[in-house]
């Protein structure tokens, strides 16, 4: 069956996405994609091997936008990554979209960087220019704009105060910086909440 025979291919091409056959062929580049029919991927997106694209993932590059995703990253259902003239760089071994999806959007000249081993879950979002460091986490429906989370170990690191910076809760985080080993928990405006060491929430017994 030719690519033109797959329903929806014309619409995919008009919107700048790969055809269904081209999406399925990402498997030949080492991308694991169990349901190609439910994934939308722009032709210019750069994907390294070992990436997993679960159902209902959208990777869209528009107006010379750039998306680069590193080796072994998991994009779970409901993840939407859109670069409209901006740049989104995601490192290796990142987990995005568990517990409700996640949205990442970079507009013209904006840069969003997500370091190796970061974890973003719970229906939150990143927009404008953000730097989410190695091992950093965003946990919950948090709208993040111009935020910086420090580098550190992943959530599996046995030393909480050595882990990457964390935002947890719900609400709006704008122009917020969280250093390594620290966390802000809030339910509203994160700029008004205290910055605490992660061991405050994970004390050693």
Radius of gyration: 18 Å
Distance between the termini: 62 Å
Residue runs with pLDDT of under 50 for 5 or more positions: none
Strand percent estimate: 35-45%
Percentage of helical residues? under 10%
| Tally of helical segments | 2
Q: Give the mean pLDDT.
A: 95
> How many distinct beta strands?
21
SSE series: HHEEEEEEEEEEEEEEEEEEEEE
Structural class: mainly beta
Structure characterization notes:
This protein is mainly β and about 200 residues long. It contains two helices and 21 strands. It has helices at about 10-15, 20-25; strands at about 40, 45, 50-55, 60, 65-70, 75, 80-85, 85-90, 95-100, 100-105, 110-115, 120, 125, 130, 135-140, 140-145, 150, 165-175, 175-180, 180-190, 195. The strands form two sheets. Strands 1, 3, 4, 6, 7, 9, 10, 12, 13, 15, 16, 18, 20 and 21 form a 14-stranded mixed sheet that branches. Strand 20 and strand 21 form a beta hairpin.
SSE layout:
Blueprint: H1 9-14, H2 20-24, E1 40-41, E2 46-47, E3 52-53, E4 58-62, E5 66-69, E6 74-75, E7 79-84, E8 87-90, E9 95-98, E10 102-106, E11 111-114, E12 119-121, E13 125-127, E14 130-132, E15 137-139, E16 142-145, E17 148-149, E18 166-174, E19 177-178, E20 182-189, E21 195-197
Please sum up the structure shown.
The protein has helices spanning 9-14, 20-24; strands at 40-41, 46-47, 52-53, 58-62, 66-69, 74-75, 79-84, 87-90, 95-98, 102-106, 111-114, 119-121, 125-127, 130-132, 137-139, 142-145, 148-149, 166-174, 177-178, 182-189, 195-197. It is mostly beta strands. The longest helix is centred in the first third of the chain and has 6 residues, at 9-14.
């Amino acid at each position: 069956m030719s690519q033109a025979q797959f329903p929806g291919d014309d619409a995919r091409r008009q919107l700048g996405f790969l055809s269904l056959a081209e999406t399925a062929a990402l498997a030949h580049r080492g991308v694991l994609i169990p349901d190609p029919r439910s994934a939308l991927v722009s032709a210019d997106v750069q994907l390294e091997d070992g990436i997993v694209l679960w159902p209902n993932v959208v990777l869209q590059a528009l107006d010379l936008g750039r998306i680069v995703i590193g080796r072994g990253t998991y994009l779970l259902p409901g993840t939407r990554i859109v670069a409209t003239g901006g740049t989104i760089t995601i490192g290796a071994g990142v987990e995005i979209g568990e517990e409700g999806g996640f949205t990442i959007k970079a507009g013209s000249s904006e840069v969003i960087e997500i370091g190796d081993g970061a974890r973003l879950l719970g229906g939150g979002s990143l927009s404008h220019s953000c730097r989410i460091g190695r091992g950093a986490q965003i946990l919950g429906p948090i709208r993040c704009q111009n935020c910086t989370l420090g580098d550190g170990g992943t959530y599996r690191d046995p030393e909480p105060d050595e882990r990457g910076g964390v935002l947890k809760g719900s609400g709006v985080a704008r122009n917020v910086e969280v250093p390594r080993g620290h966390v802000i928990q809030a339910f509203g405006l994160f700029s008004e909440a205290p910055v605490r060491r992660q061991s405050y929430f994970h004390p050693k017994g």
